[in-house]
Amino acid sequence: MGEKKEPLLFRFADAVTNILETPVVWFRETIVEPNRKVYPWYHQVYRRVPTIDECYTDDFVCQYEANVQYQKDRMVDSEIVAILRNRYEDCLLFNQEDGEKLCAGVREAVEQATADWCAKHSDLGPLPDVKEAFMKQKHRMVWERRHGPVGSGMKQKAEF
Predict the structure, then answer these.
(1) Which residues does 117 contact at the CB level (< 8 Å), separation at least 6?
(2) d(Cα 72, Cα 45) in Å, to the nearest integer?
(3) pLDDT tens track for 34-43
(4) DSSP letters along 69-132, please?
(5) What's the mean pLDDT when you consider all of the chain?
(6) CA dihedral sign, ordered 96, 101, 107, 111
(7) How far is residue 54's CA from residue 30's CA, in Å, rounded to a whole number?
(8) At residue 79, does pLDDT exceed 60?
(9) Alpha-carbon torsion 105, 106, 107, 112, what sign?
(10) Least confident interval from 29-38, 69-78, 84-93
């Protein structure tokens, strides 16, 4: 017995589909997809401006851009801490009986993010500046070089 042939109507529908679909698929695969900007994030990532330590002392535009970038970074860090704190509170409300045990990972993340925020942004006053934050970082690095990590106590002087 021979092969079963498709009805003429199905062959005609396949031909029309191929005629209409083939140019569209070709255009998408050869023109659209190679020229598409693919970002692994949900928003476009812009180039960061130079930091304050990369600016010359007489380049006020660079210093202004660094200050604006610092303000944005501070706002993002503050929002991260707020979001983590809200997640922890929601976790405690959802798990009322075993909340402390089940939400321990979120609590550690909140504490770490808060400690990082405080190390970078606290004690700078109500209107922090990028120069103040940079000096705070420099002073902390000098302290750690001389006395060990902050909070670990002062290291003993070595005897020669």
Answers:
(1) 77, 78, 80, 81
(2) 14
(3) 888 777 767 7
(4) HHHHHHHHHHHHHHHHHHHHHHHHHHSSSSHHHHTHHHHHHHHHHHHHHHHHHTTS-SS--HHH
(5) 88
(6) positive
(7) 42
(8) yes
(9) positive
(10) 29-38
The total number of residues written for the chain in this structure: 160
List, for residues 96-134, the tens digit of each pLDDT value: 888 889 999 999 999 999 999 998 998 888 889 999 999
Q: Give the tokens for residue 29.
A: 């695969």
Instruction: Give me the phi and psi of 2, to 5 degrees please.
Output: -85, 175
37: its two tokens: 């900007």
pTM exceeds cut of 0.70: no
